[in-house]
């Protein structure tokens, strides 16, 4: 596959899609630098847990900086230390529901974060960006499948989606003003699944916002049942239809976009499979992959959901030579491998082993990593005092047990926590 030369800076590279993309970049022998503030990624021993596993899987090293893209001086140092040819910009907050409650946090992080990154890129002469956009910019689709000429910014139902739309507009304006700048806007449909190894995957903080991680947490026994929002849509079985895309295919889409990111101008591509699956079809496929029952109940529609949304990705195939290869069965099988091997995610891997928990203790007591570890553990323990919570997690991991946040309220757990 052709690719522009030089180091790739990946913002948000410790997250779900970022870590899979970093793995594919390393497999292509690319130099990769990751910046991430770990707001939604687990700290490992020295690096984020996802990147430690990526290094193990590839046998290669990633340079990592724990920083916020809003911190322009720190970001500029990274650009000065490495010759960055291209930036792949994943760093963002992405929970739709939370964005409704905290719009300012979303605009500040996603929009201001992107502007800060673009300022630093300008200062350091880097003119190539691949941006994680989303099918949410299409709002309620006027026709299906949706291609890139479909209007955007109309009837977007939440602030998260609007941050993606605003950033797209900023990038389009920048490409008009700076004739040397290249922006590739990749509009993802519904990324799911995990790396075939089952060692990296999606590790949501708290209850998952998306269907597949929710289904897999029900299958593994972390949640009692799934709620299906709406059974009366105008779809074959009445449940919502979406274009699910394997995260490994999506990661490869970024590699395919690299040559485009060397061509000035704004280039826009849908990344999806072109096929829609209903919620009930996903549940069936997951049952088959996992061999587990998935109890569910159909409840009222959720505000802002559309009946069907799937992509026309033929432009990406024509111009980037990319098309999704993996099927819904591959998506479910890999998601299940990840979930069943890592019941509680990266930090709380079932049967977790000394390496991880002693690493957690080490990282907790190491000044530089302290904040992110404690923040993560603090969230994990549902807002307990962060110090007590981190000690608690270490102790529980030492005996290979994990306590869900709700269980923290049980007296036995609390006593155990402080003993
Ligand atoms: N997962 C999806 O369904 C989906 C769909 C469409 C678009 N996207 C977009 O793709 C990108 C990656 O999504 P993901 O699913 O991997 O999410 P993720 O939360 O797993 O990864 C995002 C990473 O960015 C980091 N981050 C957030 N704000 C930051 C900041 N200010 N500075 C530095 N790091 C920061 C987080 O710690 C996290 O590691 C996001 O931009 C998201 O909006 C995701």
Automatic annotation (TrEMBL):
One of its GO terms (biological process) is galactose catabolic process via UDP-galactose, Leloir pathway. The keyword Isomerase applies. Pathway: Carbohydrate metabolism; galactose metabolism. The keyword Membrane does not apply. GO terms for molecular function: UDP-glucose 4-epimerase activity; UDP-N-acetylglucosamine 4-epimerase activity. Its cofactor is NAD(+). Catalyzes two distinct but analogous reactions: the reversible epimerization of UDP-glucose to UDP-galactose and the reversible epimerization of UDP-N-acetylglucosamine to UDP-N-acetylgalactosamine. The reaction with UDP-Gal plays a critical role in the Leloir pathway of galactose catabolism in which galactose is converted to the glycolytic intermediate glucose 6-phosphate. It contributes to the catabolism of dietary galactose and enables the endogenous biosynthesis of both UDP-Gal and UDP-GalNAc when exogenous sources are limited. This is UDP-N-acetylglucosamine 4-epimerase. It comes from Amphibalanus amphitrite.
């Amino acid at each position: 596959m052709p690719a522009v030369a030089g180091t790739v800076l990946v913002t948000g590279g410790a997250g779900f899609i970022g870590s899979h993309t970093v793995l594919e970049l390393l497999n292509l022998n690319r130099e990769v630098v990751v910046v991430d503030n770990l707001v939604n990624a687990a700290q490992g021993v020295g690096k984020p847990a996802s990147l430690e596993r990526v290094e193990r899987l590839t046998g290669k090293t990633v340079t990592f900086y724990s920083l916020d893209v809003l911190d322009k001086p720190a970001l500029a140092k990274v650009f000065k230390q490495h010759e960055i040819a291209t930036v792949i910009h994943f760093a963002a907050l992405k929970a739709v529901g939370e964005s409704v409650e905290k719009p300012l946090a979303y605009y500040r992080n996603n929009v201001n974060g992107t502007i800060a990154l673009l300022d630093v890129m300008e200062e350091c002469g880097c003119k190539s960006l691949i941006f994680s956009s989303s099918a949410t910019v299409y709002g309620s689709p006027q026709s299906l499948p949706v291609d890139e000429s479909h209007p955007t910014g109309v009837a977007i139902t939440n602030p998260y989606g609007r941050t993606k739309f605003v950033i797209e507009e900023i990038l389009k304006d920048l490409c008009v003003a700076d004739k040397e700048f290249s922006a590739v806007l990749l509009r993802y449909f519904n990324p799911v699944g995990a790396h075939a190894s089952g060692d990296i995957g999606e590790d949501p903080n708290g209850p998952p916002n998306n269907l597949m991680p929710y289904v897999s947490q029900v299958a593994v026994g972390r949640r009692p049942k799934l709620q299906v929002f709406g059974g009366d849509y105008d779809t074959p079985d009445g449940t919502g239809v979406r274009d699910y895309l394997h995260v490994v295919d999506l990661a490869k889409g970024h590699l395919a976009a690299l040559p485009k990111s060397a061509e000035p101008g704004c280039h826009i591509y849908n990344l999806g499979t072109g096929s829609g699956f209903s919620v009930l079809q996903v549940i069936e496929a997951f049952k088959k992959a996992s061999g587990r029952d998935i109890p569910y109940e159909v409840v009222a529609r959720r505000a802002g959901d559309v009946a069907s949304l799937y992509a026309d990705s033929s432009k990406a195939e024509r111009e980037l030579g990319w098309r999704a290869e993996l099927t819904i069965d591959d998506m479910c099988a890999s998601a299940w491998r990840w979930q069943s091997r890592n019941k509680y995610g990266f930090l709380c891997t079932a049967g977790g082993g000394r390496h991880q928990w002693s690493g957690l203790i080490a990282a907790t007591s190491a000044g530089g990593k302290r904040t992110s570890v404690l923040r993560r553990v603090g969230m994990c323990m549902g807002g307990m005092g962060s110090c007590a919570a981190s000690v608690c997690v270490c102790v529980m991991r030492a005996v290979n047990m994990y306590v869900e946040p709700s269980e923290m309220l049980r007296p036995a757990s609390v006593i155990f926590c402080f003993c």
